[in-house]
From TrEMBL, chain B:
It comes from the Bacteria. This is Cytochrome-c oxidase. Belongs to the heme-copper respiratory oxidase family. It comes from Aquaticitalea lipolytica. It is a multi-pass membrane protein. Pfam families: COX1. Residues 22-590 form the Cytochrome oxidase subunit I profile domain. GO terms for cellular component: membrane.
Length: 356, 597
């Protein structure tokens, strides 16, 4: 019944708007004799001023966005060794964009204002100028050449996983709708695995080859613990559909593809504790908790339970559409010192001991 | 329906009326002008569906926990007590994308204006094959119907994102929408591609063969250049999507393993072995990227023409404009990998695609600067069509610039699949192409329907739309840079993003206002068809040939002989002429230079 009423109401609103537009439409017939559909000098003037207004609107919305939301923890607070490289490139690109955007939008809207049509005026017959064309071909070429070269060096250095640094090898394993991490253990070599070997009865949930000696000391966890300053070499698998391992604070992302192993490597540089203590993060967490308290009040009023206060943690998110609960496919990441890591690792069960 | 299967438009005899019945005139018409209108109306209806869907999922993102009676009313069992189901959210996102990209901005835009303008502007009586043209429209209609039917299947419509990456799209057990819904999606798209190919081949043949006397390639209006090159890109890339769709159908229904391998789902191992989802991504984006140029190039052509006409000035750098269309078309086919930087393909390939992708900025910059120079020292007639054209350049620049971030593989790592991407492509090809389409409709409405659109409603429509478009998509850059992934049904499982919730509310409010104000346009469009002011033959005082044809539509376009062409299409404000425009069919005076660069 409510559904039916809603449809009726929405329909009425639409009809009302329609009728108002119609009134607006009919009201003009007598007032504007020259309404042939072609712009008059008066139209040109009004719209020319609106163009300037719109230019100001674009500038204002840009400034408001930068002031209100431009202070992004994700722009300056990277927690990985390669993060600052990406952030620098990002900032340089943003500055270039900002300059070009400001100038071209000004020219476009200002010209639209300045050269508004008037009866009796004639436009300048100006069809071509090779020098100008050359200028605005060559300037982008130079700017882009710089960006391309800088970008490619950054990309290559990020994507090159240096085996000489003795990275810790960890498997990220994706399934609808959760993540698992598999540590390679003492030998730092992951045991062979294939989804065909999955045996849920024996709790071999990632399909490890039980006969493979390298697999025996592997450790499967539901939290991702990393050692600060120690390079990590992720090998990623998925058992069902595409997923994407997105670790925004580490400026890291790679798809997990069923049937193949994908890779990404980085070095975490800031522990969870350190990150929580940074002034930006303290401020952000305070801001979020204020929002959560307000939301909780509304919830409690409705008789539901309040929201937990938020403490910061690094996250691994799924960032490739993977089905119904895609929006809630996450894993906590904890960056800690070697000692803390070792203590945590000791509590975990090795693969050979975890089987039923 | 076959009363004039012999309508070969270039025969001069066919300038006369045929005896036409209602069916051959309005339904199974072979007249390009009627087919253009059919495309436009079908595209409009699909557009309304697509926009309503976007408003629904925007409301879901803004107010995720709150029951919404509109959901209950429109979604029925998918929104028990007004709470939207997570599966239908993904379906809405998927079908919104599919409809807007293919049915509105490909068929609705290209189908309408290529059909309307190619014969009229090159001086032809009709398309090379009126019959194929009719078949093309009806295939499009059929695919639209199937796509709409797919919304009503039991397990829900396709919901794997408009990119339908397998295995999600291939396995019904992975997602409800991957059953019958996806089958219908694939069938609909296969028919759509057939329609698009028939259309494109027709456009290409027509432009090459049926130009009137004197209409050399370098005298063509830029609209025709844009439609022509668009059709070429379509013919090159759409068949690849068709093959991807067919292979996916094979995987889904006949147990092949083109895209699937090593899958364990819901407690069992599937038999698939040896395929790769990455292969599908390659095939999909081999069309998918050119597709965005299939969408934007016609809009660029329309805008170039409208800007020149309303600036009363020649388009600046005509040859550079053609060269940049060609450059964009060429580059568009070798950049698809920038959608796949983090797909697991070889990072070296990523470098190559970064290089080719950023090169596209060069012809794009040339075009933007040429448009700006075109209005410089013009005598601008700020008609609604002109406003939408200026709006087009504005959003094209704003959206295009962020392309240098997304095209840069190193930066893409962190903003891939976030709202930053949504902001980028909606501005640069969604809103821009829509503006191009609106500009075209406001400009050529008199040609299509013989009546004028109400100008003041047009102004209202433009200004509200322009403000809302920025209001919706500009803040999205920032929530994207804060790491918010796209296609999340709700963000409330991530307290990390709690402080972005208010941004999402602002965006949704802009979207609702902008969406509702499209009613102004719809009213204007449909009421002017019957009650609009009757138009004169050449209301905008343009130079191109379509305005030399009579207002009344006749099959064959011109009574008597087809006009001959003596000059390029941009002789506006030419020194030595009293009027500020010289139509293309006016012979050069003695000693007059063609002044065409």
């Amino acid at each position: 019944m409510t559904a039916f009423l809603t449809i009726i109401i929405v329909l009425f609103v639409a009809v009302a708007i329609w009728q108002m537009v119609k009134i607006f439409d009919l009201a003009q017939v007598n007032t504007d004799e020259s309404n042939t559909g072609v712009a008059t000098d008066y139209d040109n003037k009004i719209n020319a001023y609106l163009m300037i207004g719109f230019l100001i609107f674009i500038y204002v919305i840009t400034i408001v966005c930068f002031v209100k939301w431009g202070d992004l923890p994700l722009m300056s607070n990277s927690a990985s060794a390669h993060g600052p490289e990406i952030d620098n490139l990002m900032i340089i690109s943003m500055v270039i964009i900002f300059i070009v955007q400001t100038i071209t939008q000004f020219l476009l809207h200002y010209f639209a204002f300045k050269y508004r049509g008037e009866k009796g005026e004639k436009a300048l017959f100006y069809a071509d100028n090779n020098t100008l064309e050359a200028i605005w071909t060559i300037i982008p070429v130079i700017v882009l050449a710089g960006l391309i070269i800088y970008g490619l060096f950054t990309w290559t250095s990020i994507m090159n996983i240096n085996e000489d640094d003795d990275p810790m090898v960890i498997e990220l394993y994706a399934q609808q709708f959760n993540w698992k991490a598999r540590y390679s253990g003492q030998d730092n070599v992951l045991g062979m695995a294939n989804v065909r070997l999955i045996d849920l009865d024996r709790a071999n949930i990632l399909g490890l080859d039980e006969a493979d000696p390298n697999a025996q000391d592997d450790v499967i966890t539901t939290e991702l613990h990393l050692v600060v300053g120690r390079p990590v070499h992720f090998k990623m698998r998925s058992q069902d559909v595409l997923h994407s391992a997105y670790m925004p604070h580490f400026r890291a992302q790679m798809n997990c593809v069923p049937g193949m192993v994908t890779e990404f490597g980085f070095t975490p540089t800031v522990t969870t504790e350190q990150m929580r203590a940074t002034p930006e993060m303290v401020e952000k967490v305070q801001r979020i908790n204020k929002i959560r308290v307000e939301k909780s009040e509304a919830l409690v009023a409705k008789g539901e339970s309040a929201l937990d206060p938020y403490t910061f943690d690094y996250l691994l998110l799924c960032n490739k559409i993977c089905g119904k609960s895609h929006y809630n496919m996450q894993m906590k990441i904890i960056v800690e010192t070697q000692e803390e890591f070792d203590a945590w690792m000791k509590e975990q069960k090795e693969f050979k001991n975890s089987l039923n | 329906m076959s009363t004039h299967a012999d309508t070969h438009a270039h025969d001069d005899d066919h300038g006369h009326h045929h005896k036409e019945t209602f069916v051959t005139k309005y339904i199974f018409s072979q007249d390009h002008k009627m087919i253009a209108k059919q495309y436009l109306i079908t595209g409009t209806i699909m557009g309304v569906i697509g926009v309503i869907m976007s408003l629904m999922f925007r409301m879901q993102i803004a107010w995720p926990e709150e029951p919404n009676v509109i959901f209950e009313a429109l979604l029925g069992k998918w929104a028990p007590d007004g709470v939207m189901d997570a599966d239908i959210y993904l379906a809405l996102v998927t079908i919104h994308g599919t409809i807007m990209v293919f049915f509105v901005l490909t068929a609705g835009l290209s189908g309408t204006f290529s059909n309307l303008l190619i014969p009229l502007q090159i001086g032809a009586r009709d398309m090379a094959s009126g019959f194929l043209n009719m078949v093309s429209y009806w295939l499009f209609f059929l695919s639209s119907v199937i796509m709409v039917i797919s919304l009503f299947v039991e397990a829900g419509p396709a919901a794997a994102g408009w990119t339908i990456y397998p295995p999600l799209s291939a396995l019904p057990m992975a997602q409800g929408g991957s059953g019958m819904g996806m089958t219908l999606w694939l069938v609909s798209m296969a028919i759509f591609i057939a329609s698009s190919l028939l259309g494109s081949l027709n456009y290409i043949v027509t432009v090459i063969n049926l130009r009137t006397k004197g209409m050399s390639m370098t005298r063509l209006p830029l609209t025709i250049w844009a439609f022509f090159i668009t059709a070429v890109i379509g013919v090159i890339s759409f068949p690849v999507l068709l093959s991807a769709a067919l292979l996916l159908i094979m995987d889904r229904s006949f147990g092949t393993s083109f895209f699937l391998s090593d899958i364990f789902i819901q407690g069992e191992v599937l038999h698939y072995q040896g395929g790769s989802p990455v292969l599908f991504e390659h095939l999909f984006w081999f069309l998918g990227h050119p597709e965005v140029y299939i969408v934007i190039l016609p809009a660029m052509g329309l805008v170039s023409e409208i800007m020149a006409s309303n600036s009363r000035k020649p388009i600046f750098g005509y040859r550079a404009m053609i060269a940049s269309i060609l450059a964009i078309a060429f580059l568009s086919t070798i950049v698809w990998g920038h959608h796949m930087f983090i797909s697991g393909m070889n990072p070296f390939l990523g470098s190559v695609f970064t290089f080719t992708t950023l090169l596209i900025a060069i012809p794009s910059a040339v075009k933007a600067f040429n448009w700006i120079t075109t209005i410089w020292k013009g005598n601008l007639q700020l008609n609604p069509a002109m406003l939408f054209s200026i709006g087009f350049v504005s959003t094209f620049i704003t959206g295009g610039l962020t392309g240098i971030i997304l095209g840069d593989s190193a930066l893409d790592i962190n903003v891939h699949d976030t709202y930053f991407v949504i902001a980028h492509f909606h501005l640069v090809m969604g809103i821009s192409a829509l503006y191009g389409m609106f500009a075209g409709i406001y400009h050529w409405y008199p040609k299509m329907f013989g009546r004028m659109l109400n100008k003041n409603l047009g102004y209202l429509h433009f200004w509200v739309t322009a403000v809302c478009a920025y209001g919706v998509f500009f803040p999205m850059h920032f929530i994207g840079m804060a790491g918010l992934p796209r296609r999340y049904y709700t963000n409330s499982n991530f307290p990390l993003f709690d402080d972005l919730a208010n941004v999402n509310v602002i965006i949704t409010i802009f979207a609702l206002v902008g969406g509702v104000f499209q009613l102004v346009y719809l009213y204007n469009f449909f009421s002017s068809m019957f009650f609009g002011k009757k138009t004169v033959q050449n209301p905008w005082k343009s130079t191109t040939l379509e305005w030399t044809a009579p207002v009344k539509h006749i099959h064959g376009n011109w009574e008597g002989e087809i006009p001959h062409v003596y000059r390029w299409s941009y002789d506006y404000s030419k020194p030595g002429y009293e009027e500020d425009f010289v139509p293309q069919n006016v012979p050069l005076r003695e000693g007059e230079e063609e002044l065409q660069h």
